[in-house]
């Protein structure tokens, strides 16, 4: 009974902590400098990308090295919506997610025929094909890319209201709006991931990750579940890509489809935070961003240090920073396990209670 | 009508014929043992029944319905449960969660129904004390029990057991046989591949002898054991 009540308390505590953190973060633009809001925007965007990649690799066993494809598709869709069709950027963001999800269907059709390292390479190849294809799209700048028309984000729905409420410049109000949007996206991604993983489908997904053959033999359909997760993460990654590049205001094929920025760093974040856990990517994103800020003046040394940290974590703390913390304290945030009902809980000696 | 029928089922891996024109019936509630030397095609036969591999020729019927082209998932949901020769637990999930996957997907039970069913099976298979433990760290006996328990959680009408007594001590084997007899007594049909003959013959009513992918003989354990041909190919005794 103690285990169950601990778990319930842990879940209640997790949600209370997340709610409190969300409120504090939502209120930050009212008193924090604009630079802090911009930094937090990027941490939250990386968290969203990491949560999505973690769903793929940590829970579905799909190690994709091509998630930058959906960042790029999302970003270009939003830019195309604004530049070519005069859409409000917010509408563009929503369409970006839908387009990324729709395009993930043919990507899944081809890449799901492969497994393991072959799947990883195939996703990378698809992303690079897309990068080359988008560099041919002259209407959005071709290979040299393009910028958003002047004042686009400032005219975005809700920006004027924020400007009046906070008494800040239009640029700062636009930053705040995008920050709130990415905060909302991070919260939705976190809660949706938790609910999905706690559901019947999440249980099946974890079974597939552990043993595909055994999962099939108990009625789990691996293809259907993996495809569902691939589509949903493409949606989240596409929206995130759109938000990132709306905030940057400029897009090029090389930046939107950058394997280093949107996949390699994301893998690093998940690995150091704790793959296959929900708090892991959040912790990883914060640590990564701090390291990035601290080491950004050291050129390529920065990448070497990141690599060494990644290797050290993989060798000495395979469950990442969150796993290490959980092991030492016994506390779990957002626990995913399904505990056996009280009647089969056991005492320390193993006897039935 | 038999619950499971195989009709002229054959399977080749390249030039090697591993299953050769196999035909047999299994009645509801019946327990059939399959014996044969290593490489006789016993596990391949299981994979053909569960749909993990498709035959080159022949048909598999479940309750008279041709399921030859059905996926392993569909066959599981139609009532075919199985255990693996080498235990294949979902290593990061607990013992209870392993069963929960099977009950939610294979038996398609609601959350509450699955919970109750898993508790019942955990008690029946002697795994209750390990319910919350990670399945990756279990002892061999517990892993074998888990294989059995997980197959049971799919609510099968036919359960396929692949060398489930292999590697166990005499005492452990006896405990497992008692559990299997309990499952059989509840009306579930069983097909059991086993080299531990004294365990097998305590449960099954019939034995099927497989050699080089072909059915050599089907009969009661006494009839099979009395066959000179079986003794020669399987037990190594000269006719």
Automatic annotation (TrEMBL), chain A:
The keyword Transmembrane applies. GO terms for molecular function: branched-chain amino acid transmembrane transporter activity. This is Branched-chain amino acid transport system permease protein. It is a multi-pass membrane protein. The keyword Oxidoreductase does not apply. It comes from the Bacteria. The chain crosses the membrane at residues 12-31, 43-62, 69-87, 93-110, 177-197, 225-245, 265-291, 298-317. InterPro entries: ABC_transp_permease, LivM-like. It is found in: Cell membrane. GO terms for cellular component: plasma membrane. Keywords: Cell membrane, Membrane, Transmembrane, Transmembrane helix.
From TrEMBL, chain B:
The keyword ATP-binding applies. One of its GO terms (molecular function) is L-valine transmembrane transporter activity. The keyword Transport applies. Residues 4-237 form the ABC transporter domain. Keywords: ATP-binding, Nucleotide-binding, Transport. GO terms for biological process: D-alanine transmembrane transport; L-alanine transport; L-isoleucine import across plasma membrane; L-valine import across plasma membrane. It comes from Paracoccus sulfuroxidans. This is Branched-chain amino acid transport system ATP-binding protein. PANTHER family: AMINO ACID ABC TRANSPORTER ATP-BINDING PROTEIN, CONSERVED COMPONENT OF ABC TRANSPORTER FOR NATURAL AMINO ACIDS-RELATED. One of its GO terms (cellular component) is plasma membrane.
């Amino acid at each position: 009974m103690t285990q169950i009540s601990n778990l319930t308390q842990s879940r209640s505590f997790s949600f209370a902590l997340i709610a409190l953190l969300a409120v504090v973060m939502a209120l930050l633009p009212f008193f924090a400098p604009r630079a802090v809001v911009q930094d937090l925007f990027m941490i939250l965007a990386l968290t969203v990308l990491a949560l999505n990649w973690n769903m793929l690799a940590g829970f579905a066993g799909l190690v994709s090295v091509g998630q930058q494809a959906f960042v790029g598709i999302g970003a270009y869709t939003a830019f195309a919506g604004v530049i070519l069709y005069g859409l409000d950027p917010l509408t563009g963001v929503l369409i970006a997610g839908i387009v990324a999800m729709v395009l993930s269907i043919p990507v899944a059709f081809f890449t799901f025929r492969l497994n393991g390292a072959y799947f990883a390479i195939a996703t990378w190849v698809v992303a690079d094909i897309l990068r080359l294809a988008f560099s041919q799209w002259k209407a959005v700048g071709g290979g040299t890319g393009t910028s958003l028309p002047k004042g686009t984000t400032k005219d975005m729905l809700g920006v004027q209201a924020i400007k009046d409420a906070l008494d800040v410049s239009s640029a700062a109000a636009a930053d705040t709006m995008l920050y709130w949007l990415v905060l909302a996206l991070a919260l939705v991604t976190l809660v949706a991931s938790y609910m999905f993983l706690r559901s019947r489908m999440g249980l099946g997904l974890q079974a597939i990750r552990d043993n595909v053959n055994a999962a099939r033999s108990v009625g789990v359909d691996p293809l259907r579940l993996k495809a569902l997760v691939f589509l949903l993460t493409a949606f989240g990654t596409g929206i995130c890509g759109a938000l990132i590049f709306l905030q940057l205001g400029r897009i090029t094929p090389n930046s939107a489809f950058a394997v280093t920025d949107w996949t390699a760093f994301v893998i690093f974040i998940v690995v150091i935070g704790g793959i296959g856990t929900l708090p892991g990517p959040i912790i990883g994103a914060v640590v990564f961003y701090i390291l990035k800020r601290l080491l950004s003046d050291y050129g390529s040394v920065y990448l070497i240090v990141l690599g060494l940290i990644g290797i050290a974590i993989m060798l000495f703390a395979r469950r990442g920073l969150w796993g290490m913390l959980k092991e030492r304290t016994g506390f779990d945030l957002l626990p995913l396990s399904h505990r056996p009902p009280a009647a089969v809980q056991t005492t320390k000696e193993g006897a039935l209670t | 009508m038999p619950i499971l029928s195989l009709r002229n089922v054959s399977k080749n891996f390249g030039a090697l014929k591993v299953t050769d024109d196999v035909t047999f019936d299994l009645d509801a509630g019946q327990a059939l043992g399959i014996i044969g030397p290593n490489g006789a095609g016993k596990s391949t036969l299981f994979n053909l029944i569960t749909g993990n591999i498709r035959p080159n020729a022949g048909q598999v019927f479940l309750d008279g319905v041709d399921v030859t082209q059905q996926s392993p998932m569909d066959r599981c949901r139609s009532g075919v449960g199985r255990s693996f020769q080498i235990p294949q637990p979902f290593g990061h999930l607990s013992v209870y969660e392993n069963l929960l996957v099977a009950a939610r997907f294979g038996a398609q039970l609601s959350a509450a129904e699955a919970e109750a069913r898993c508790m019942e099976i955990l008690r029946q298979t002697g795994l209750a004390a390990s319910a919350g433990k990670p399945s990756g760290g279990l002892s061999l006996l517990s892993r074998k029990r888990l294989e059995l328990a997980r197959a049971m959680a799919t609510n099968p009408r036919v359960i396929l057991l692949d060398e489930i007594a292999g590697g166990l001590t005499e005492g452990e084997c006896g405990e497992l046989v008692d559990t299997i007899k309990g499952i059989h007594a509840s009306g579930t049909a069983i097909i059991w591949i086993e080299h531990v003959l004294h365990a097998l013959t305590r449960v099954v009513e019939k034995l099927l002898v497989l050699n080089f992918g072909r059915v050599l003989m089907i009969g009661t354990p006494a009839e099979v054991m009395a066959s000179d041909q079986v003794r020669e190919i399987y037990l190594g005794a000269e006719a």
